[in-house]
Amino acid sequence: MRTLIDKLNMNIVRYTWLLACLERGFLVDLEPQYMLYANEQLQAYFKDNLDQFNDHYTQEVDVKRLREVLDSIPNEQVEF
């Protein structure tokens, strides 16, 4: 399978991406949490457009996504 992925230079999403799309009623942007495999182009996009907690620099988030981002931050990195 790895050979096929490399040969076709494809991205492979998790089923959770489809569930997120159905839940929100539109195609959700790809994010690392939804990927089984991301090619070099998509990895570069993630690096340029997401912070270290995989939060988009420019896209709005809903309450659920904000909670996911905040929950992914280790306690030692939270400053008051």
Architecture overview:
The chain has 80 residues and is mainly alpha-helical. The chain has one domain. Helix content is 45%, strand content 6%. The protein has four helices and two strands.
What would a concise description of this structure say?
By secondary structure, this protein is mainly alpha-helical. Helix content is 45%, strand content 6%.
Beta-strand fraction estimate: 5-15%
Number of strands: 2
- Please tell me the overall pLDDT: 84
Q: Main beta sheet, described? A: 2 strands, antiparallel
The CA-CA distance between the termini, in Å, is 47 Å
Supply the key terms.
80 residues, 6% strand
Outline the fold blueprint.
Elements: H1 2-8, E1 12-13, H2 15-24, E2 35-37, H3 40-49, H4 63-71
Antiparallel strand pairs: 1-2
